[in-house]
Every structure is written in structure tokens, then in C-alpha cells.
Amino acid sequence: MEKVIVDCSTGEQTVVPLTAEEIAELEAAAAKAEADRLAAEQEAAAVAAAKEAAQAKLAALGLTAEEIAALTK
User: Fold this and answer.
1) d(Cα 53, Cα 69) in Å, to the nearest integer?
2) Host H or E run for residue 2
3) pLDDT at residue number 72
4) CA distance 1 to 26
5) How far is CA 47 from CA 17, 26, 52, 65, 68, in A?
6) Measured between alpha carbons, how far is 27 from 31 in angstroms, rounded to an integer?
7) Which of 10, 52, 56, 58 is least surrounded by CB atoms within 10 angstroms?
8) CB atoms within 10 A of CB 49
9) Residue ranges in the chain whose pLDDT is less than 70
10) Beta partners for residue 3, in sequence order
11) In this predicted structure, what is the pLDDT of residue 73?
């Protein structure tokens, strides 16, 4: 893996290999991003399931689909 360093005053670009520490940081950041993505997906699924359960309970109480929609907007 490499990084590009640009000198803004001259426009000169230098390609430098990443250090082991930089590679480890990138890998750790990627792992955290994936874990955060999975957690967000799980949370969204839990919210959707709770919403479905609540709508089913409202329907069981005798509310119409229109009434349920009005309450859940």
C-alpha cells in the first residue's frame, strides 16, 4: 500500500509506502466501520420488527389500516 504526498506550493507528488502502523490503523478503521454498519443494520431491523408488532397489536384491537396509518405517521 502506498500514499501520495503532494507539496501544494510546487505541485510535486511523492509516492511513499505506508508504514506497518499506518496499515494497522487502516485495517482497524475498516473493521470498526464494518462493525458500525452491521450494528446499524441490526438496529434498523429491530425497529422495523417493533413497528410491525405494534401495527399487528393495533389491528388486533380492531383499528383499520387507515387508522393505523394515521397513528404511525
Assistant:
1) 14
2) strand 2-6
3) 86
4) 10
5) 44, 31, 9, 20, 17
6) 6
7) 10
8) 10
9) none
10) 16
11) 80
